[in-house]
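REQUEST ID: PR-0412
SUBMITTED BY: lab tech R.K.
PRIORITY: routine
TASK: structure prediction, single protein chain
INPUT:
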Amino acid sequence: MKKTIDLKDMRILIFTLMTVSMYVASKVNAQTRDTLYYNAKWEKTDRENRHFYRVVYREDNTGPIRVQDYYPNGMMQMDGWYSSLDPEVRDGEFTWWHEDGKKHRWMMFDKGEPTKITEWDSNGKITRQQEKVNTISHENGEKIRKKKALEKAPVFDRGRSSFRDYVVQHLKYPTDSEGTKGQVIVRFVVDRNGKTKDAEVVQSLSEAFDKAALDLIKSLPMWTPGVSDGRNVDIKMELPLNF
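STATUS: complete
OUTPUT:
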């Protein structure tokens, strides 16, 4: 039996396709693209005297700005994200390449502050790897939070399972505390061997919830330890747990 197409359905289909096409076109047209030219000292110049050139993509006046810089031969020199270009505020992932196309630096920025960096030599070997992490110490009875530069932060190494997955699976809600909600904050150390130790509650909810939080920390498997100056180091961490 042959199928027939209802004229009304056809009109609805055509209208829907036109609406989608107009929406896509409006999104494409909303993105602006500007090209800027620079001399060999990265000073602004005109097209005829350019050495480098930069392409700037903007979605709108408030969104992130993507910038791509190019060598004279057309090879990409840099690709990265800014939250502002005046003043320049790097905010996101950045990659730099040599003129032959080989990657030589990757960095991550958070509101202008570099948080991660990896560098390679001309043979593709990693020559530098560093990451800034929040660390906690106590001076004169006061909690001091500092950013510490590590070659590698501690990594929760559990195959495909993330740290969040592990917490969801292993954090036990106290059976005799039904209806209670709140947060426990636990401080602990991932030592130079990757072992979790010195766990303590720094924000309590109740004895039962504090015990559940500490039991979770004690159950944690081995980590890949943090690295600083080429050596494994102890790193103190804090973990908020919501019940």
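NOTES: The helical segments are 7-30, 163-170, 207-219.
REVIEWED BY: pending
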